[in-house]
């Protein structure tokens, strides 16, 4: 037996066997990869394996029967036992084995690294979800406000958990009534999971059915039906959010998770009043002078029922902030002067801060207060702190972008706009929040974002912002196409008039633009025209009239309203002594005001 083993070694049979196995394994791996990429039928790989197996005994026979000598290849029986052995044979086989093993080990290491990266990426992506609008299956089909509100509350609750990525409401609600399948919707929104459900409410009872679907294989990971009285509505919302968060394996502490997913009140009556107020805000047809008063009435009833209802207090604070500002059409038309409105704003924001769910939430309230007080440097510092706490949150980055733009740090704003763009896309959202500022300082970059947003084929692209970017880029014909689509989809009177005036000026139809402006006097009331008048006049090229229209706000009580226009690069604060002094006291120096490139030529 010892002699046979020595003969096998002498004739390099063992080396040939090792080399053949290593090379054969490598060939099989490469062939398998090629077959997958080229779509080869399964029999190809089976045939290759058969050939490789049959080739092994052939290779071993040849190694036994022939031997490499200094004179060349000869039959082993013809080589004398004491003949010198050619050292090249062993070295060649050793090199083949070593080289093949190096290639194989390198491939295995690379594959392991790639698989690890994919696993990590998958783990992150798997914690992403879109909450689609719950369907209203109520007998009278009159509970859509409740179904939408319940959807919002679940979405907002999930969005408060730090390690879940939740598609925005705007993006998710764009699929309301859509007949697209779940994998398609998930792919378009860039999420791995979809939550959908239905609501049936009537006669004091409520039934909510919810199901969590993994989009990759359209598998139901979790499904449950919740039955109860209307008094159980808050608990049902919280139970659904908690079940989803657990199903997606969040890393938050259980007690902290429950606090983040809480509805903010235990009063169902207060909660429903809050949902109704939200519904009015989101109603595109609620474009009239009573909107603010209706919202105010609902929210004041809600906080009267539960004085610690943080979300209602925050919504009240935002309502008073928009009332005090000018760049908004929602105002509280109740004869309340600015001093009282400011007092109510501060009361609401203090109440919200006192019951904030987290440090980031508290900072968001402080940011709103700093803006209202025209403490713009403080607002910038708070926004930067928010980004530190939530560096991967698009909304935090957009707050920083706005704060940088308002103080005139356009270089920093440019960087933040690009970062916000990346985060918005990562969250499956459009880039409107970024390019609505960026187009004022970098038109080509903003145009790239617009084209990318339109290519995404979202159902709810903000065409108002898209139209303006196209005009800044000088693409008047494309802007006209967007304007036509916008007229069909947006019922807002003031915004539609603004788009029409822009387009008329860009096309050189000055008389038409002036006629459109004159027609706005009777549309939406004087208050509606006042909100947009500065924009109208600047677009019409009537800069002096635009400046005069805002002079009455250059006072301590009107400074916040006036500061709203700092979001426009075309606004010059030096035209307003009080505001200019406030900015100088904070060390703010803004770049010179720019011109609207498509404004009517006077």
A few lines on this structure:
62% of the residues lie in helices and 8% in strands. By secondary structure, the chain is of the alpha/beta class.
Tell me the CATH topology of the domain at 127-263: Rossmann fold
CATH architectural group of the domain at 127-263:
3-Layer(aba) Sandwich
CATH class of the domain at 127-263: Alpha Beta
- The CATH superfamily name of the domain at 127-263 is TolB, N-terminal domain
Shape: globular
Summarize model confidence as the mean pLDDT: 82
Largest beta sheet, briefly?
6 strands, mixed
Set out the fold topology.
Blueprint: H1 2-10, H2 13-38, H3 42-65, E1 66-69, E2 72-75, H4 88-126, E3 128-131, E4 135-136, H5 144-159, E5 165-166, H6 169-173, H7 182-189, E6 193-202, E7 205-214, E8 219-229, H8 233-247, H9 254-261, H10 268-282, H11 291-305, H12 310-324, H13 338-354, H14 359-372, H15 376-389, H16 394-406, H17 410-426, H18 432-438, H19 443-455, H20 463-472, H21 476-489, H22 493-506, H23 510-519, H24 525-539, H25 543-550, H26 559-563, H27 577-585
Parallel strand pairs: 3-5, 3-6, 4-6
Antiparallel strand pairs: 1-2, 6-7, 7-8
Helix pairs in contact: 2-3, 2-4, 5-8, 5-10, 10-11, 11-12, 12-13, 13-14, 14-15, 15-16, 16-17, 17-18, 18-19, 19-20, 20-21, 20-22, 21-22, 22-23, 22-24, 24-25
